[in-house]
Amino acid sequence: MNALRLFVLTVLVILASMAGVRAVWAANGDLVEVFIDARQPAYVVFQSVAEDTPVLARQEMVGYAALEKVSLVPWIRFRDNVQSFIADGIVKNEYPNSRTALGILAILKSRPGRPVAITWNGGIAASFFDFQHAVQTYRAFQQDAERYERERRRDVADDPLNPELHLRMLQGG
């Protein structure tokens, strides 16, 4: 239940930052920062911040960046070190041959303000159900890693966190 509350809080932060501001995240300007929220051990949320992001939304992010495990990182620093930023949240990489790092950069660049997460197992979460699945699988892994390994989904088409499927979907392909 704690994980669900954290996810709901994250969604509320995003919605609150958009309140009263028309098309906040439809910004087409150059990216200046990446908002990173690593408070949930099952996933790390990344959200790009465009140069034309309204001041109200930017102030909200700066306020949240004062919290532990939340930060605003310059886009260029993130871009140049994306692998290390995403690796920090991966406990067990189940997708070692995926193009996750480049995909995350492409998603953040093409969809400013859209939150996307790297999960504890190297997957991608982009929907409410993905976030829930990441929390559930992380909990199962923590409780019994051997059982988790025996029972985890292996079919690519049936894996809601598979990076390749998400990258195609999020990039419109």
Tell me about this structure.
With 173 residues, this protein is α+β, with helices and mostly antiparallel strands. It has one domain (2-170). Helices cover 47% and strands 15% of the residues. The chain contains eight helices and five strands; from the N terminus they run αββαβαααββααα. The chain has helices at residues 2-18, 55-64, 75-80, 82-87, 100-110, 128-143, 145-151, 163-170; strands spanning 31-37, 43-50, 70-74, 116-119, 124-125. Strands 3-1-2-4-5 form a five-stranded antiparallel beta sheet, sandwiched between helices. A hairpin with a 4-residue loop joins β4 (116-119) and β5 (124-125). α6 packs across α7 (145-151). It is globular, with a radius of gyration of 16 Å. Residues 4-28 have low confidence and may be disordered.
Question: What's the helix and strand layout?
Answer:
Elements: H1 2-18, E1 31-37, E2 43-50, H2 55-64, E3 70-74, H3 75-80, H4 82-87, H5 100-110, E4 116-119, E5 124-125, H6 128-143, H7 145-151, H8 163-170
Antiparallel strand pairs: 1-2, 1-3, 2-4, 4-5
Quick structural summary:
With 173 residues, the protein is an alpha+beta fold. 47% of the residues lie in helices and 15% in strands.
Q: Could you name the key traits of this structure?
A:
5 strands, 47% helix, 173 residues, single chain, five-stranded antiparallel β-sheet, alpha+beta
In angstroms, what is the radius of gyration?
Answer: 16 Å
- The amount of helix comes to 40-55%
Count of distinct structural domains: 1
The biggest sheet amounts to: 5 strands, antiparallel
Shape from CA axes? globular
Strand order of the largest sheet: 3-1-2-4-5
Q: In DSSP terms, counting alpha (H) and pi (I) runs of 4 or more, how many helices?
A: 8
Task: Report the mean per-residue pLDDT as an integer.
Answer: 82
Q: What is the succession of H and E elements?
A: HEEHEHHHEEHHH
Secondary structural class: alpha+beta
Note the gap between the termini: 34 Å
Low-pLDDT runs of 5+ residues are 4-28
Strand content: 15-25%
Number of strands: 5
